[in-house]
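cron nightly-structures :: item 1 of 1
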Amino acid sequence: MKPAPELALDATVVPAPASMTTTDWLLVAAIAALVGFAALLALAETSLTRMSRAKAMGLVEEKKRGASTLLALVQTPERFLNPVLLLVLLCQLIAATLVGVVAEHLFGPIGVAVATAFEVVVIFVVGEAAPKNWAVRHPERAALLSAPMINALVRFPPVRLLSAILIGISNLILPGKVTTGPFVSERELLALADVAAEEDVIEVEERALIRSILDFGDTVVREVMVPRTDMVTLESRAQVADALEVAMAAGFSRMPVYGQNVDDVVGIVYTKDLMRADLAGQSHASVAEFARKAEFVPETKRVAELMREMQQKKYHMAIVVDEYGGTSGLVTLEDLIEELVGEIVDEFDVEEPRAERLANGHIRVNARMPLDEVNELLGAELPSGDWDTIGGLVYQVLGHVPSEGEGALVDEYRLVAEKVQGRRIGRVRIIATAADAQNQTVEEIQPAQAAAADTTLSSGDAISAVASPSHGEDGGRPIVNNDEEAGPGGQGEGHRHLGPTLSGGGAAASAASSPFGESLGARPSGQLWAGEAW
């Protein structure tokens, strides 16, 4: 009897993993070296690109080891960045290839999957993520550690040659001129100051000073000057005694002197010179005899340049002229300093706040408040143009001189002229409105009367407010306008808040209220004009 035939079974036999050979061990060692070198290059790339030139200069001043080499690299980042990126790519590609060779020899057909998993996990974690995260957490330490190595690599001729060739090929593919710097913009500096203040690295006042310094370079004289309507001036024919009374009433240490009109400024007189002349018995002499030379600057001059000029030539006041040669206003050294450190007010100043938030949520601001400061206060973007102040914006939108309580809708805000003196807006109330603000009725605002408006003349003469400081009623001879503020000794500067001019209608002004609580007696030589403080 024949035995039954055996059934043939098809089976796939999986080969057992091959054993490691000497070549495999050498390849594994090469892979480890390449991954380690790629990790160092990744650490160097992150730390050097995050290192600013200012920080590198600080490390040099601290005499840190390797700081000089680090500064040289940071000053020319194009020298190291492309070679480092090229070497990182070469290391990772060669390591991935060697991993594939070893995995195929050890595991056969499934070696590709093993190699892919190894490359994703090991090469990414060890060669990329871990060193870069460490460099982010310790940027200075990582930069100082890697700077000598990177400096040596970029000087190695084969690396420089290969990098230059490949960059040249890329430039052929993507032609265009390479632009350099600036590597730090003004906006980035402001953002850096904000972050430093939030993290308590600097004080809030220091951040404000940094912002003021950066804005200072972009500010022109027109934005900080005392406008022509606020100037206190003296006619050249005025007597010393009259001029002294004006100086004491206004509290100024320097005042411009004009000839025919305010556009004809012939000099600047110092209150101390007038006091010396009065003590010497020259009270009836003309002011022109004691006037000093006046400095003139265009209204478009940069305030930073003007401050340097004032320091070099040692003068504190300049007359601002427009493109036609007419007087636009005046500017003092104190006005320029206030742009940096804020308003300078002494114990004798009586001024309303530039901005005041009311109980009903409205905001009251001085009409002369610069528009950029209003935007910063509101967090808004009110339109800008040929006007510099919030009052100028109201004029632009309305197209005429507003009456008190009249307002205009601008974006999401209603701007109401709260106080109008003659043709001049004194204060503006800002009201945040809803979408249907145009249909809403805004209650008319009754402005408070200024204390100086109640000034009366003991002789019974009428006091009339005039819009222009250069022309009076009843033949009144203008003596004053505005200049800079003085303390009790007449040496202060920078006051710019005198309002409409008051003129006596008779032969002489009998008495006028003084900021120091004094009374000015009538001068037989002519009329006295005094300014009304807001």
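cron nightly-structures :: done
The first strand starts at residue 226 and ends at 227.
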